[in-house]
Amino acid sequence: MSRRDSSDLFPDDGLDPEVEAELAQAFGADVDSGGEPTGNDEFDDIDDDVDDAWGFFRRHLPRVPRISVPRISVPRISVPRISGRGVLGRRSEPNAPATVAVKRTTATKNVDGRTRVVITDDTAAPAKVSGQARFRERRIAARRAEGRRRLRIAVIVGSVVGVIVVALILLASPILSIRTIDVEGVVYADPERVGEVVASLRGDAILTADLRGAERALEEIPWVREARVSMHLPRRVSVQIDERQPIAFYRAVDGFNRVIDLEGRVLDVIEGDLVDFPPIQGTGPNLSAGDVVEQPFLGAAQLINALPRELRQRLVSMAISPDGEVSFLLTDDVTVLFGRPDRFQDKLVALLNEIKRQGSRSYSVIDVSTGEASVR
Q1: β-pairing, 315-320 with 224-232?
Q2: Whole-Å CA distances, 207 to 175, 229, 246
Q3: What is the pLDDT of residues 260-315, one digit of tens each?
Q4: How far apart are CA 241 and CA 197, in angstroms?
Q5: Based on C-alpha coordinates, what's the Rg of the chain?
Q6: Distance between alpha carbon 33 and the CA centroid of its chain, in Å?
Q7: Coil, helix or strand for 344?
Q8: Is the pLDDT of residue 318 over 90?
Q9: Higher pLDDT, 29 or 262
Q10: Cβ distance 279 to 289 under 8 Å?
Q11: Of 197 and 93, which is predicted with more confidence?
C-alpha cells in the first residue's frame, strides 16, 4: 500500500477531533494541533494497521445489545412398549420383531452467552428375533399353558373332594337321621310285619336310607299291592300302603279258610269265617299266603267281580262242583247254574233278561250254562 495523504484517510466529514486524532495515530499519520494529519509517517505494516483499526472500532462503535433466547423445553416423547398384544387389543404376530420403546432426552447448553437446546433421540431399530429366541418364547408359552391346565384340573378335583367331604359330614351327622315315620293305608296287613320294616328305617341317615328296599319288603306282605316310601328332610319318612281288596274266601282241605282277591292271590289264612265277603263252597287246595289259586276257584272269584251290582247285592254264596262247574245262590232261594267259568258277558246278559221276564213269578233255578237262559 502506497503512502497516502491523511486527508484521503480522514476526509472532513464532521468527526470529533479527538476521534480523528486517534484514527490518525492508528493509521500512523501525524496530526497537528489543529487536528489535521501531518502526513510525515508511512504505513509500515498494513496488517498491523488493520488490527489497530479493528481495535479502535471495537472500543468506539456502539455495542449491540445481547439477545437472550428463552430456554425451550421440549416435552419427552415416550412410545408405549408393545408386547403380546398389538394396538387396539389386536394380538401381534408371533414372529413379528419386538418393538423397542422410543426415548428422547432434552438438554440445554450455554455457549458464548447463548442458549442451545440439544434433543437426543435414543430410538433404536427393532431387534431381529432369532430362531432360538422364538423357540424359547414358544416353550415358555407352552409351559404357562400347561400350568394353567394343571391349575384348572386341581381346582376341579379340589371342588369334587370338598363336596364329597361335606356330603360325608352330613351323612354322619345325627341331624339328618330318620326320627319320624308316618304310615298310612294299613287295614288288613299284618301290623307286626309292617312294624319290622318301619323299625329297620328308624335311626338311619335319611340321605342313604334304603327306601327302595323298604318298599320291596312291604310289597312282600300278601295284603300289600303297592308301597311308596318317601323322605322329607330333615328327619321324616312317610310310608303309603295300597292294600289288595279281598273278594271271597274258601275252605281248604286242612279246614282253614283262604282269603283271595280278584287275581286269586291268597291274602291270608284264617280259622273263622268272614262275614263281609261271600264264601266259595267246595274243598280247595292248601295254599299259603301269597300263593295264587287256580281254576275253578279263580274263575269263581272273577265271576263275583263281574256280577252286576243288583246281582252282587243278592249274592249269598258261590259253589264249585267236583267237575269244576260254578253255581251261585241268590236271595229268595234262587239258584243260578252258570256252568264253566267262561263267557261271562253272554251268560250274565241272558240271566238278567230272564229275571226281568219272570218278574214276580216264583222260580227256583235259572240255567245259563249253555248261554241261553231256562227256568225250572
Answers
A1: unpaired
A2: 11, 13, 37
A3: 999 999 999 998 888 888 999 988 999 999 999 999 999 999 999 999 999 999 99
A4: 12
A5: 66
A6: 120
A7: helix
A8: yes
A9: 262
A10: no
A11: 197
Burial of 209 (0-12, 13-18, 19+ CB in 10 A): buried
3-state SS, residue 44: coil
Distance CA 300, CA 4 (A): 175
Report the share of the chain in percent with pLDDT over 70: 64
How far, in Å, CA of 277 to CA of 315, rounded? 10
pLDDT in tens, 342-369: 999 999 999 999 989 888 788 899 999 9
- What is the spatial distance between Cα 375 and Cα 357, in angstroms, rounded to a whole number? 11
Residues 6 or more apart in contact with residue 4 via CB below 8 angstroms: 43
Q: At what angle do helices 191-201 and 211-219 cross, to 10 degrees?
A: 170
Say what the pLDDT of residue 162 is. 86
**Partners of 269 in the beta sheet?**
258
- Determine contact, residues 274/260, Cβ cutoff 8 Å: no
Longest dimension (CA), the chain: 200
- Determine the straight-line distance between the first and last CA of the chain, rounded to whole angstroms: 189
For 96-109, give the secondary structure using H, E and C.
CCCCCCCCEEEEEE
What does the pLDDT read at residue 108? 59
Give the global pTM. 0.54
Q: Which of 3-12, 46-55, 246-255, 313-322 has the lowest mean pLDDT?
A: 3-12
- Distance in angstroms (rounded) separating the CA atoms of residues 160 and 100: 47
Q: Provide the grid cell at 271.
A: 280259622
The CA-based angle 181-225-192, given to 5 degrees, is 50
Give residue for cell 496488517: 47
| Grid coordinates belonging to 321 | 262242583
Q: Calculate the CA dihedral of residues 128, 131, 136, 140 and round it to 10 degrees.
A: 80
- Sorted by sequence, the CB contacts under 8 Å of residue 81 that are 6+ apart come out as 99, 100, 101
Can you read off the three cell numbers belonging to residue 304?
A: 263275583
- Kindly tell me if the per-residue pLDDT of 336 is higher than 60: yes
Q: Please, are residues 243 and 268 in contact by the beta-carbon 8 Å criterion? A: no
